[in-house]
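Summary for the steering committee. One of the milestones for this cycle was to obtain a three-dimensional model of the protein with DLL bound, which we needed before selecting residues for the alanine scan. The sequence and ligand used are listed below.
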Amino acid sequence: MQDLTPDPSTLDPEERAPREQLLEMQLTRLRETVAHASHNVSFYKRALGEAGMQPQDIKSLDDLRRLPFTYKEQLRQNYPLGMLAVPRSQLLRIHASSGTTGKPTVVAYTRRDLDTWSSLVARSIRAAGGRPGDLVHVAYGYGLFTGGLGAHYGAERLGCTVVPASGGMTERQVTLLRDLRADVIMLTPSYMLVILDEFERLGLDPRESHLKVGIFGAEPWTEEMRREIEQRADMHAVDIYGLSEVMGPGVAQECVETKDGLTIWEDHFLPEVVDPVSGDPLPDGEVGELVLTTLTKEAMPLLRYRTRDLTRLLPGTARPMRRMERIRGRTDDMIILRGVNLFPSQVEELILGIPGLSPHFLCVLSRPERLDEMTVRVEARPESASAERRERMRAQLSERLKQALGVTVEADVIEPGLLERSLGKAKRVLDLRPHPPGG
Ligand code: DLL
């Protein structure tokens, strides 16, 4: 694989700024954001009043923890545009979050917000190893989802040639990738697997494509999955993070030269990690829920937004800004099986440790009697699909699941191609229990 480390002279000045300078900039921007939110969003005026806080009370970055949290539920209560800090006529774009239940969460952008977003995605693509002049194939969905358009404008901003493929029509994706000789591909890791399978189905070797790097996000994935994609496609695989409420993709990006977690673009977002239950701030290095405060957003500033994503903060390496470890899962995706907490990403790790198993899997939860049960349904790879081989892998996987998770989990190794493929975010859990907790 090529060395794609960017030339330091091409980085944004903020990306290289010493920490003291960054902290000063964060404090100034935090004060401006709190003032902007409290003057222009009645929700924040009230919330800050109840917390006994005035914008001028922000004297240091430590005062952040005196601000109230913002929860997704509150954004829903203010549907559609109750959190706006500018008149509607100043909006240039509206997106909506991928909420699968109930009303979506609507998010909005001014001209300056779109400009910031494009420049942060451009920065992210460069950190991933993309360069001006590269051909970028965007297979994140276009539309209300922030993935497609977010990646698109960022790639254009960097000076790349963009192919707005969106998701779906997988055979055509392969044709375009080969014929246009894409250098960079941006899509969910689970859809990348579908595209790799399609190369193979067509008798083509993905290692012979021109791709040098894939920028994967919008759903949890693992180191094992990175290895799988890098080996099958002979390209770098790096992680991009974001969420619609806060902006979209480009809140944090993994640097290709280190591949050690995601650098948070701290000049625009102030991160904290808190205990998901008590809300108490945790020191850097401890795992908890990521909380983000926007520092430059005009249309919808957010104070201490509870992302529900679990990670930990780490010191900077490739850049002075702090990193976060790859997201393990969301508090609301956590499976509680007979008292044991687990995430689909742990299951993915174990599956990919067994050579004949494919990364296509689903955790099926049921309650045949009084106790909850989980079956991990996973496809065998085509070359390992004989009944005998599948039975051996089934026994091996259920043994490893039991050892790693400390609870008995059934495994079911099925023939290739039986599970539904996703064109965007993969569904990893099928809950067939009569009354799922919280449901
Ligand atoms: O998924 C934005 C995005 C698009 C990010 C393309 C990266 C690439 P939402 O649909 O609002 O926005 O979903 C946000 O997706 O809170 C995480 O739970 C999850 N997520 C996003 N990126 C990652 C990642 C977009 N790299 C929610 N790893 C977030 C794990 C991720 N989970």
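Key point for the committee: The chain is about 30% helix and 25% strand.
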